Amino acid sequence: MSEPSSSQGGPQDLTSLAVDRAVASNTDNTNASPSPSPADLDASKTTIELTTKPRSVPLPNAPEIASVTTATDHMITVHWTSESGWSAPKLKPYGPLSLMPTASVLHYATECFEGTKAYRGHDGQLRLFRPSRNTARMLISATRIALPGFNPDELEKLIKLLVSVDGPKWLPRSAPGTFLYLRPTMIATDPGLSLHTPLEALLYIILCPFPSTLKASTPTKPGLRLLASREDSIRAWPGGLGFAKVGANYGPSVLAQGEARQRGYDAVLWLFGPDALVTEAGTSNFFVVWRKKGEAGETSCLELVTAPLGDKVILDGVTRGSVLELARERLVSPNAPGHVECLRIVERSFTMKEVEDASQEGRLVEAFVAGTAYFITPVSEIHFRGTTIEVPVAREGDKDQSMGPYARLFRTWLEEIIYGRKAHKWGVVVDEAPGAVNK
Ligand SMILES: *Cc1c(COP(=O)(O)O)cnc(C)c1O
């Protein structure tokens, strides 16, 4: 997770230095603090109170799933105070939280979260996908927003506990190939209205039924249509919060997202700086496949290009990292599988002008977004300040007209792991709680 910073001496280094330091001290139990030292997060202390009012699982097309307004029967909550540290976690019935109106999170966005999924495999097993990536990232996010640190392995155990209790009923064995959305969240519950480092916090984990596919705006035409962000609407900047999943990044993006939707686009393509660097799309990382200018088909691979992590402007997506790893492992050799040309993997800043040029010169091969929510979804169009760039989705005669061959390969390879068709270290099996309801 510790990506070296690409530049030296800028304000972004102060941020990353502070975050790295805080992460180290947050996980360092030998830290000299007044005794008795505050307790670390400890999943083994969890108390369990099962619901007496189990709800029925909504049908896949229920409105509450489309709006993601409900969750499974249970949730996990853990309180923290600066004096005592983490209290014993509770697995208890899902329900409202109680907060003072002065609570820090309500005024100062002292909040961070994670997003991942629990899957029911075709082999009947429940799985998580690389959960340690999410728990490590949550620690980085918490640190950036002055929330308390914790042992990420204990958070992973709590996530597995919730999935093991609610998974059997909410992801029945009779419906393989389905998933629930997991949302670990941390908020500062500190009731002090003065702006300060929170002295009280709440960590909670909820598990939500989620739409099986997020629909593109034009159902007849495959692929997402993206609206490039305006010059006066910037998601993240060096030295800011772009690398952290903190609520403060997302509330302010809703205005641009709303405008995009109103104009018939699916998501915003976030640009940065006077050169219109391409960063991310909505809450997904963004990839293009193009042929480099001046290179011919027989002599060189295509390029798979995505924005770099070094300046900490974009989120270090688990899906992004997995796509890059799979590409490096399987697609860089000239004998790549799946009847595709080999790829050269390029993590660097790139501009909208480069995308436009590639399109005009017929070198643009494919573009897709990658993230937990949209998974791997092709992009068919980018509207950039007055011009529309058409992105090829599938070529005439391709067997699969719904997405290009690279998006298809990554999607297939990830699905094989997630749904247990191929054994892989990224697919982490969750044991089901004995006696859990399995209807
Ligand atoms: C969550 C998120 C992503 C995707 O990350 P995954 O770990 O792949 O789900 C990408 N960009 C932003 C801004 C995000 O919030």
Please describe what this structure looks like.
This protein has 439 residues and is of the alpha+beta class. It is built from nine helices and 19 strands. It has helices at residues 11-27, 63-66, 104-108, 131-144, 152-170, 254-262, 318-330, 352-360, 405-418, and strands spanning 47-48, 74-81, 85-86, 90-93, 111-113, 116-120, 126-129, 178-188, 200-208, 224-228, 267-272, 277-281, 284-290, 302-306, 343-347, 364-371, 375-384, 387-390, 427-430. Strands 1, 2, 3, 4, 5, 6, 7, 8, 9 and 19 form a ten-stranded mixed sheet that branches. Strands 10-11-12-13-16-17 form a six-stranded mixed barrel, surrounded by four helices. Strand 2 (74-81) and strand 3 (85-86) form a beta hairpin. Helix 1 packs across helix 4 (131-144) and helix 4 crosses helix 5. The longest helix has 19 residues, at 152-170. It is globular, with a radius of gyration of 22 Å. The two termini are 39 Å apart. Residues 1-12 have low confidence and may be disordered. Residues 115, 245, 280, 283-285, 315, 317-320, 371-372 line the site of pyridoxal-5'-phosphate (PLP).
